[in-house]
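Operator note (shift B, R.M.): manual run for DUF5723 domain-containing protein requested after the automated queue skipped it. Running by hand, logging everything below so the morning shift can see what happened. Input copied straight from the record, untouched. If output looks odd, do not overwrite the archive copy; leave it for review.
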Amino acid sequence: MKYFSLFIFLLGSVQLFAQPEATMYTLSGVPQHVNYNPAFVPNYKFVLSIGPGSVHGHYSNSSFAYSDLAVRRGDSLVADLVKFNGALNKKNYITTAGDVEAFRLGIQLSKRLYFNWTVGTKVFARQMIPQDLTSLFINGTSSFVNSSASFSPQLEATSYLESAFGASYKVNDKITVGGRVKILRGIVNASTENSELTLALADDYSMTLTGDVNARTSGIQNADNGDVKDYLKNKGLAIDLGATLKLTEKLTVGASLLDVGAINWKNDTYAYTLDPSVATYTFAGVDLQRIIDGDEDYFDAEMDSLESKFELQEGATGGYRTPLPGKMYFNASYKIKKQITFGALLFMEKFQGRFHPGLSASVHKEFWRIAGVSVSYSAINKGFGNLGAGFNLNLTPFQFYVVGDNLLRMPLSYLANGSYEKFASNVRYFNVRAGMNFVFGRDRSHEKKAYNQRKK
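Run finished. Output pasted below as returned.
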């Protein structure tokens, strides 16, 4: 029963994985801006963060919102399962992510070279809900007669430590290039190499259930007895690459490729498998006569047979390798005035063969040297109402910032409706990042250049 329960748990487990951030990319006054293109150079010659220099949380899903499931009828909140099922795609992904930057050091070594070093921890996950699964519970089995329903659970959950060393180099007045090397130490992982659960329904309504699973974990099976040193066995490496090109005095374009790499898992590695030749069960229907005759063991026997066939086989296994979710950014920024910049951003993430694209438009305003404010509009996850916002406050040597995608909709929803309920029930994409830095030596070279040009 233990492993049958674990199998059911795997079908519904939350899978963490990160998606790109849009608004943070525009907040150029914050040193963490360099995380999204290693060719970027902060406005300060020296940056130091010790403690929560950056804390980030993310949530999104690819198809539905809470309002598709729960609807208000009068004073009551009821579940509308038909509406919910209609809002689903064939495969539906709920994603969450988080990271904490514990340390950052940034130094302008010369007029051309900027160096940065960061240390932090990250976690990412994803949950896939197949529409066939909800259709079976909502609409019954009639729609699957002489066909099959595929329930294909996948699991990819990872947490790891990251130490990143990066540099940007100004080739000339127009071109800047940059890169970062990331040393990774995996903490915990659960991944599914293969997973199929198929229900075939014949015209006589007999049902055949077949399973085929190959899942792996690291750092979970013996977590209670684990040693910190054991987790250092999970080594990985990743790189970031980026470049910017200044086409005119006002127009700049940039591109970056992030998190190209993988982690090799060696600590406490276990495999969980189902052999499809064994994990198959046909349910021909209910024998009413046996129920009438008072056969109390009838259903228990059926369930025991089902459980025995779908019991996960587990055992220690060798090491395995998992990739990180790779991210790509392409941006263009146009400075219409000295302190106002318009931006356009195309971003996407590739993970396990699936692309997650998005588009964003933004405006960023600098308020002298004291503050910076960004607002953005993003189209992502088939959602077209994502209003982002961010600001940084510079009280040298302290700098504080808060930024997020779809963050602006929260206060707007409250002003319009007197509560956050409408926002919470319709949100499909949301992330927020906040932190504090110590900053010194603001770079004023561009200010002096603009001043000299005005004098001419």
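Quick read of the result: The chain has a mean pLDDT of 82. The first helix runs from residue 2 to 12.
Leaving this for review. - R.M.
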